[in-house]
């Protein structure tokens, strides 16, 4: 089985939210739902140094979406069978016709990735733009990134290409196996919650 996933470079991300807005527009999401979140990590300080200032201040961003995990926690708790894992692409699929809106998937997901659609009374989630991927195109979030901070492809290839990429940063990878590789910013690994 191929496992598709994302590679994210914190050193290239400017926090512009283009990925987030492109997804929101493509999926026609209401104000309460986002399938992709951009987190800012900042730190350091400024201090007087002689006649000037010295600093070790930093800021960088992490763009995260639903992780299409190797062992998705949401799949095992869905009583309606609305969530499945495609055995060819590794994409975790969702069938809105089967969803009963119980929110068990949201509670089980350590990332809080499934989103409740209040108007429909059902859960929704990122589908990795499966229709675009099937047509040989990039997911809309990747295509919208003006600085190429996001990349999409076979996870094994992405991890081989970016050998220093990691999947930690507070992500519970040992429990779900998220399909993401992050090349960290030089300032250090963020804590994404």
Architecture overview:
It is a single chain. The chain is of the alpha+beta class and 193 residues long. The chain has one domain (4-46, 53-183): 2-Layer Sandwich (Alpha-Beta Plaits), CATH 3.30.70.20. The protein has seven helices and eleven strands. The chain has helices at residues 18-26, 73-77, 104-108, 130-134, 140-144, 155-161, 173-176; strands spanning 4-9, 36-43, 46-49, 52-55, 58-65, 83-85, 92-94, 115-117, 122-124, 150-154, 180-183. The strands form five sheets. Strands 10-1-11 form a three-stranded mixed β-sheet. A two-stranded antiparallel ribbon has the order 2-5. A hairpin with a 2-residue loop joins β3 and β4 (52-55). The radius of gyration is 18 Å and the shape is globular.
What's the helix and strand layout?
Elements: E1 4-9, H1 18-26, E2 36-43, E3 46-49, E4 52-55, E5 58-65, H2 73-77, E6 83-85, E7 92-94, H3 104-108, E8 115-117, E9 122-124, H4 130-134, H5 140-144, E10 150-154, H6 155-161, H7 173-176, E11 180-183
Parallel strand pairs: 1-11
Antiparallel strand pairs: 1-10, 2-5, 3-4, 6-7, 8-9
Total DSSP helices: 7
State the strand order across the main sheet: 10-1-11
Mean pLDDT: 90
- Along the chain, the helix and strand elements come as EHEEEEHEEHEEHHEHHE
Please name the CATH topology: Alpha-Beta Plaits
* Strand residue content: 25-35%
For the terminal residues, how far apart are their CA atoms?
Answer: 30 Å
Q: Can you identify the CATH class?
A: Alpha Beta
Q: How helix-rich are the residues, as a percent range?
A: 10-25%
Structural Rg: 18 Å
Total domain count: 1
Report the structural category: alpha+beta
The main pleated sheet reads as: 3 strands, mixed
What's the shape?
globular
* Strands, count: 11
